[in-house]
């Protein structure tokens, strides 16, 4: 093994090599001996930049040498490099001409936090959700073969993403097709939290097969150095080594699924990595896994045990790694309130089971795992499995709560339909990060859940106006028999009273917050996070002399048809507001109801929400304002609509002149 370098963490990163690297071709002009230093410079650059702007610091620090070795060993972008998730690809961004923009990452107009085909020709496949790389890479490899081309296709995937269903399905097909495909496994024994599951154990056992690895290296070196026939003997022995690997290494990947295995290799040693990748390049008759061992957060100044900080950080002190203190969020995060509330519910109802798919901290389930380790499960990056696992639990009388981000629940749509709703099973879905999430951008916005959940028979779907009502809704869901889903936004609540005991809500009942006794000819019907902005807009409107009834819809399914039909009969303008795609969303549900009841004549219904386009990344406040989804935007839209109504009325009214 090559000796380890000692990283230097300067506040002003040394750029001896880096300043001349504006593309992988520049990197490939360097001597292999210089790569370790290049990696050190990149690591410093990431640290310095992320200490200011924050990002997936730890995940990217762990993959610096992998990126350097990949771009050195392969002729990118001619050889296709496919990253899984893409959160760990900052070194790849730096090496592919985006160094100077790294400080703009995740900000509006800046670099994406993940990979995007429209950002660089080196981002061969867009990413953000886990476990996609092997399928995409296999597709590219087959396309190459069909077109008679000869480039390499390489996928880089983390150990936890490898356990995701799609990756497993791709492995199954790749081994069977015997296509030339290289998989670089970034094995750091971590997901965001520690990796879970049988595959993690399998990789552990490979790491544990040290005797084999030592033997293999020694045999390799001996044969290589043998006079006269060294290289030939070495090549011949490869077959033997494969056989040894198959015999010694545990598991199906090598034995049964048709993959060759190279490794393991020190994933922070550029020489060893380039050597392993060159070896993999020689394998022409099927897929190969190069198994690299890395350390998440490698070089992060603080090594205190904080899994999450090793994955992603906000700004931090470059010397100590301590997070730059932002004022503690005054209203608590929705996530924190959810975790606490679920613990409370579990204290009084032993049948409640909490589930997360690799996001314990992001969903608040970390609290439950601490308090009720027997009744909480992290299933890994496996949203589909999570939902059907929940369905199974509920068949036996338990009450599973799937705490899954809105965007990741998209993965499990068929499981929601086929396994839960068709059987009307008692599974609960709690979707954090519903709506516009901000810096993580298009792959992570939770804008579709209203549309896809309200279409499914038997589903009940709701959204609280604030964190106190979220507690009520969780309580209500757990007392309701059947599938039910709740969405709530990323970030802090509005400061509502979370001390009071949660209340049972009537399913399908909305609440009138303003103008119950008439409230003029306008109604604003808001869903979830848009209720408070709607109230603020109504206050502004009132100052202009426009009275508006404000309704907190609470449920998109079932809708409060009694209340909505009454509004349809008494109002001239109904404005619906939701933080989600308009197509098939809350507003559409309201229009459908009014249409079915013949109330659309003479009534104007205006839907406010997110238009049918890809929403970029950036400050959520800014993005919401862009689509009119804040108090000012709602006020402006209602004002415009009221003016149109008045103009129409004026046109219909006979003029003084004509009467005379
Ligand atoms: C479908 C899906 N679920 C969850 C996530 C959230 N997520 C992002 S990175 C990550 C951990 C990935 O672990 P691993 O593949 O081992 O890569 P590492 O971060 O350790 O480099 C998770 C769970 C996601 N991106 N996609």
Keywords:
7-stranded mixed sheet, binds thiamine diphosphate, 5-stranded parallel sheet, alpha/beta, 660 residues, single chain, 43% helix, disordered N terminus
Quick summary:
With 660 residues, the chain is an alpha/beta fold. It has 28 helices and 17 strands. The strands form 3 sheets. It has a 7-stranded mixed β-sheet with strand order 7-6-8-9-11-10-15, with helices on both faces. A 5-stranded parallel β-sheet has the order 1-2-3-5-4, with helices on both faces. Strands 12-14-13-16-17 form a 5-stranded mixed β-sheet, sandwiched between helices.
Uncertain runs: 1-10
Number of strands: 17
The average pLDDT value, as a whole number, equals: 91
Give the termini separation. Answer: 102 Å
Helical/strand content category: alpha/beta
Number of helices: 28
Biggest beta sheet summary: 7 strands, mixed
Please estimate the helix content: 40-55%
Radius of gyration: 28 Å
Q: Give the strand content.
A: 5-15%
Kindly report the spatial arrangement of strands forming the biggest sheet.
7-6-8-9-11-10-15
List each distinct ligand once: thiamine diphosphate
Silhouette? globular
What does this structure look like?
This protein has 660 residues and is α/β, with parallel strands linked by helices. The chain is 43% helix and 13% strand. The protein has 28 helices and 17 strands. The strands form three sheets. Strands 7-6-8-9-11-10-15 form a seven-stranded mixed sheet, sandwiched between helices. A five-stranded parallel sheet has the order 1-2-3-5-4, sandwiched between helices. A five-stranded mixed sheet has the order 12-14-13-16-17, with helices on both faces. β10 (460-462), α22 (467-478) and β11 form a beta-alpha-beta unit. α4 packs across α5 (90-98), α4 crosses α13 (270-281) and α15 packs parallel to α22. The longest helix is centred in the C-terminal third of the chain and has 22 residues, at 631-652. The protein is globular and about 90 Å long. It starts with 23 loop residues before the first helix and ends with a helix. The structure holds thiamine diphosphate.
